[in-house]
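Exercise 7. Predict the structure of LysR family transcriptional regulator from Denitrobaculum tricleocarpae.
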Amino acid sequence: MAVDPPRPKAMPLRALRAFEAAARHESFALAGEELGVTPGAIAQQIKLLEDWAGCRLFERKAQGVRLSEPGRAVLPALTAAFDALGASAQELRRAGMPGSIRIAALPSVAQLWLSPRLPALRAAFPELLISVTALERPPNLQRESFDLALFFLNEVPEGVECSVLAEDRLFPVCNPELAQKLKRRAEPSHDVLLHDETWRDDWPDWLRAARAHSGRHRHTSDGNSGPVFSLYSLAVQAAIDGAGLLIGHEPLVETAVARGRLVQAFNFSLPSEKPLCALVSKLSREDQVSRQVVQWLKQGNGSEPV
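Solution. The predicted structure, encoded as tokens:
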């Protein structure tokens, strides 16, 4: 009679993935955001992995969780393994869709910087199918199914090649009619200030720098009041329509300024520490198409002004 003893429980790959993301981010919430699940689901998967492994992977503290020694010891190998798995999956996808490129971009970059350049980009690469997805944060190019990412960054994520496409400067913009009323002034007074939800610090930062530059100390605005928009493109359109003043990010408003729909309201410009960057995974050595597209964008081909 054949003997068929029960096999040990299989390695819980889903739980390993949840643990690796939580350990790398040092956050259950950020891990859940990356994997598209709730922090509670991450916690459940980690508990499953701890039960399977027979050891604690996180130490639970009053102020949060911290990696245990066993968890810290296995993290580098797990990260490398999931990176390699992601790279292999990407190569498989490219083999099945050789004439395509998937671009992830900050919504404002996708709408105001990339979109005007897409017709010329398609003309330069007529065999290429170009898809664009708007994301608030850069994707993990070693894991997620994107070939190229366009974001304002001051720190380069690990595992990617970064090319600066454009430096950024911050300066107030408004439509020409409103600009006529602001002549001989150095900053807003009781004017309506428009805000983007992501860049709520733009106005306070610009006002602080402008006052330090001019030596002025008395002022009427702290830069926090005014309408807030969840999309920068909506705030730009509101400024074009005369609804108020907006802090312009130079790469995003250059087209509207060149066409005369917006003008720089005051002379002072604040250099940004976050240039517009193009990111490509270092693991995708065979992906020359993405690098060619980056080079095309970097050289200013298809730049839209006027």
